[in-house]
Design a protein that fits this description.
- The chain is α+β, with helices and mostly antiparallel strands.
- Helices cover 33% and strands 26% of the residues.
- The protein has twelve helices and 26 strands.
- Strands 1, 5, 6, 7, 8, 13, 14, 16 and 20 form a nine-stranded mixed β-sheet that branches. It has a four-stranded mixed β-sheet with strand order 21-22-23-25, covered by helices on one side.
- α2 packs parallel to α3, α4 crosses α5 and α9 packs parallel to α12.
- About 4% of the residues have low confidence.
């Protein structure tokens, strides 16, 4: 059976030689069952209901010689281990080169746990790795391979075009300078201690790649950047990325397929700390002083889908070409605590022991950490513990797939700050460059050097040293230059 399947795939690829660039699409369901652990916070949450389906959306690109796969997975993060298992299964099922497979996690905080075996970065390590969790991982790995086979079988001659819209006031910087002189992540709505936001304005650009295929529905790829941390609770949802594809497909009367790719979202989320009248509709204060709500996720989907629809019929043709792919391994210094630090390994072990014992209230009472500040210090403690015996450097693989000079899909195995995406898009030689966070793994946040001095959740949890953003920008631009030649 395996030999027959590979023969079918090979025949399909050979047939596509005569057709030039071909594109295939598949969508498979990975909605988690009740009881599965939900990652994304430092609490144990389990799925109790399902608000909307979760999926793997797989797009295959082929020039008749090489084939690449770009997948969007509705989950908070894929650990390196799970991403490796998925890619191994896809290679076995299709024969596609391993480095030509990009598995991008949307980063919904209300999906099933697919960061199994994670060593650093995700907050869910050590949780959700029970029997039902392992079954969910196994099912998702199998479904990823299914989607790859189906997308390759669906390859059809295609034309590419692009457009750019704007989605206003749904993504906001989440780091603020406070009257205390500290920088705080998510300080809360209308907090009188806020002085000003830290960092540049959010990237509100919506990139659209339109793929028109012979005798098949067109595919719309939308690239936007914001944390999908909008809903919370114990209800499974694909959050605004999944809801956006639902709205877009409905707005085209079922005539198009849609995939939403989350970009450089590391320091952005939905929290509008200075809202205008009406902007708090559909939101409710959550346990960590963050306003969340399903209706607000639907609002974001409406705004984002509208921005994409505003350019959908007027996209500019792109000249496609050879499918190429490459990897650039970037060496980045590690962020390790020293014994002389105020918050060193002794402090981290004490904090983490209390947290593991379910005594967060004792941590708050002893140290004065509350709401998001408590989450930040838990993240710092966990990072210090994880990095205590780590090497002084990390090797971070940047993975990119390109189609001619038309489009590049730039995969980062973590959460890049927004300006990383801006700078790469501005300097990329390709017609359109999509940034993909959390691709083929989850290594943590990629902040700029200023953030390590200023403070906040992102720098506290990042296992990388302060040069990480600049190192990755240089590495990705080098990779893009190589692929463009």
């Amino acid at each position: 059976m395996k030999d027959l399947m590979l023969a079918v795939v090979a025949a399909l690829l050979a047939a596509s030689v005569r057709a030039g660039t071909s594109v295939g699409f598949a969508r498979v369901d990975i909605t988690p069952p009740c009881g599965v652990f939900m990652p994304g916070y430092y609490v144990d949450r389990r799925v109790k209901e399902v608000l909307d389906p979760l999926a793997i959306n797989m797009v295959a690109f082929s020039d008749g010689v090489r084939t690449a796969l770009v997948a969007q997975v509705d989950t908070e993060a894929l650990s390196d281990l799970v991403a490796d298992r998925m890619r191994d299964a896809i290679v076995k099922a299709t024969g596609v080169d391993r480095d030509a497979i990009l598995l991008h996690a949307s980063h919904t905080h209300d999906g099933g746990h697919l960061a199994y075996g994670q060593k650093s970065g995700a907050s869910s390590v050590g949780r959700g790795e029970d029997a039902v969790g392992k079954l969910y991982v196994g099912m998702s790995v199998s479904r990823a391979a299914d989607a790859a086979v189906m997308a390759v079988r669906d390859l059809r001659p295609a034309r590419l075009s692009c457009g750019r819209g704007t989605a206003r006031r749904i993504a906001f910087g989440r780091r603020y300078l406070m009257k205390s002189g500290k920088v705080q992540t998510n300080p809360g709505t209308n907090n009188p201690d806020i002085i000003r936001p830290v960092g540049n304005p959010p990237d509100e650009q919506v990139q659209v790649l339109r793929i028109d295929r012979e005798r098949a529905k067109p595919v719309c790829l939308i690239n936007f950047q914001c944390h999908p941390d909008v809903v919370g609770g114990e209800s499974a949802t694909a959050d605004w990325p999944g809801l956006t594809r639902q709205v877009f497909e409905a707005a085209t009367f079922g005539g198009a397929l849609c995939v939403v790719i989350n970009g450089a979202e590391g320091d952005l989320n939905h929290c509008n700390v200075m809202p205008r009248p009406g902007e708090l509709n559909g939101l409710k204060r959550d346990f960590d002083a963050v306003d969340r709500g399903y209706d607000h996720a639907r609002h974001m989907a409406n705004v984002l889908a509208s921005a994409a629809l505003s350019v959908w019929m007027k996209c500019v043709p792109l000249e496609s070409g050879a499918v190429r792919f490459d990897v650039e391994n970037v060496r980045v210094p590690a962020q390790k605590a020293k014994e002389s630090d105020e918050k060193n390994l002794t402090w981290a072990n004490e904090i983490w022991s209390l947290h593991q014992a379910g005594k967060d209230a004792d941590i708050s009472k002893r140290y004065g950490y509350y709401a998001m500040e408590l989450t930040t210090e838990l993240a710092r403690a966990r990072r210090i513990r994880n990095m205590a015996e780590h090497d002084d450097f990390h090797d971070v693989p940047l993975m990119t797939v390109s189609i001619g000079h038309a489009v590049a899909f730039c995969g980062f195995p973590g959460e890049p700050f927004n300006d990383i995406g801006k700078r790469i898009k501005e300097k990329s030689p390709f017609g359109v460059s999509f940034l993909l966070c959390l691709t083929n793994g989850s290594r943590g946040y990629f902040p700029f050097s200023d953030s390590f001095k200023e403070g906040g959740y992102e720098a506290a949890t990042s296992p990388f040293g302060p040069t990480v953003a600049d190192d990755l920008i240089a590495g990705e631009l080098k990779l893009l230059g190589r692929l463009y030649e």
